[in-house]
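thought: user wants a sequence for this fold. calling inverse folding tool.
action: design(structure=
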């Protein structure tokens, strides 16, 4: 029997995680919701983040989908523990610990790029130090990136923002962790600037979620809470796939 797997994000970033999962395990029926209406989550209160996440999970619950990848670091850092308690019948897969496991054991200095709310929660710092206790961790709230990526900002503006966040750490760190699923969209640019290994959640999720291969073909259903045509165009640009995108209205 085919497995239905839900996936949520504040917007476009989770598409990168979805793409990695589909490429590795195309036999699943994936249902993705990007809450672009409320993006970015990084400048919202914890209460708002929790409320938005509940709306997304309630939709999956109404559709009988019990297995969900929380492909949003801001939700994972600020609401996942409470959501796991509130939805005990659902299997919620976070991405922070899985991403940190990608770091090699000999890394000494790590730069974490994340949203303001993820940085404020110190979720990545704590996860890294629990595994690599002597590591130096620098956290930077890259607050300009998600709005630029969600609103199709210019390459010049993106490059300027990336240099603002990265150049002060050039030659100062051994690795960079992308603590927001939007940031792999510009991973190549980040690597060009910082010149050290860059780790993200895409491959980490594929390794950490207990997928099972079978021969039946799967499917991909994508919803946005904002503009379906916009997300369709963005997906074509980012991952070169022509997925149908539908608009979804939630309670909040």
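)
observation: tool returned 252 residues.
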């Amino acid at each position: 029997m085919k497995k239905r797997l839900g996936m949520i994000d504040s917007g476009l970033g989770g598409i990168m995680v979805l793409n990695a999962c589909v490429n590795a395990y195309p036999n699943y029926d994936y249902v993705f919701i990007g809450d672009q209406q409320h993006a970015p989550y990084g400048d919202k209160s914890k209460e708002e983040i929790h409320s938005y996440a509940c709306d997304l999970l309630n939709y999956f619950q109404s559709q009988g989908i019990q297995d969900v990848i929380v492909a949003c670091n801001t939700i994972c850092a600020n609401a996942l523990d409470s959501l796991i308690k509130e939805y005990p019948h659902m299997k919620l897969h976070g991405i922070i610990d899985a991403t940190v496991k990608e770091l090699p054991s000999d890394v000494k200095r790590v730069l974490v790029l994340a949203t303001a709310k993820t940085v404020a929660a110190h979720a990545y710092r704590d996860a890294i130090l629990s595994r690599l206790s002597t590591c130096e961790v620098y956290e930077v709230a890259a607050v300009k990136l998600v709005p630029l990526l969600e609103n199709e900002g210019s390459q010049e503006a993106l490059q300027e923002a990336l240099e603002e966040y990265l150049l002060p750490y050039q030659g100062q760190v051994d690795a960079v962790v992308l603590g927001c699923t939007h940031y792999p969209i510009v991973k190549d640019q980040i690597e060009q600037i910082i010149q050290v290994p860059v780790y993200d959640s895409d491959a980490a999720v594929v390794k950490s979620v207990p997928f099972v291969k079978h021969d039946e073909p799967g499917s991909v259903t994508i919803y946005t809470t904002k503009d379906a045509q916009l997300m369709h165009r963005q997906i074509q640009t980012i991952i070169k796939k022509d997925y149908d995108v539908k608009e979804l209205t939630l309670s909040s």
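thought: summarizing for user.
answer: Here is the designed sequence. The beta strands are 4-9, 29-34, 67-70, 91-93, 109-114, 136-141, 175-179, 198-199, 219-224, 245-247.
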